[in-house]
Design brief:
109 residues, alpha+beta, 31% strand, Alpha-Beta Plaits, single chain, 18% helix, four-stranded antiparallel beta sheet
């Protein structure tokens, strides 16, 4: 079964220079193992293909049911240099929540 992350998570995003920072937080503790398993740095890099031009790093924070992603080279040089409409990466959290993951049918959402 495919679901969008917005069904089980909320997210926040921002910037540090040319690096976008996206926090993905499970809505319930039981959803954290799903995002930890299926939302890898590689999947996020593929989801942001053409936007995240550098590497994508993932950091796990199980105590708050969250993952944090750093998308290097995603902001066109950063807020003061970039000509992008979203030079600070504020909309990237919404874009990540639209990512679909495939989960087992037996998992209750």
């Amino acid at each position: 079964m495919k679901i969008q992350l917005k069904q089980i998570c909320h997210a926040r995003s921002g910037d540090k220079g040319d690096t976008a920072n996206i926090g993905l937080i499970a809505l319930q503790e039981r959803y954290y193992p799903l995002i930890a398993r299926y939302v890898t740095a590689e999947r996020v890099k593929k989801h942001f293909e053409g936007i995240a031009l550098g590497p994508v790093e993932r950091f796990e924070m199980p105590n708050i049911w969250a993952l944090n992603f750093l998308l290097h080279g995603a902001l066109g040089g950063g807020g003061t240099k970039s000509l992008k409409n979203d030079a600070q990466g504020k909309t990237l959290s919404s874009a990540l929540l639209r990512m679909e993951i495939e989960i087992e049918e037996t998992i209750r959402i």
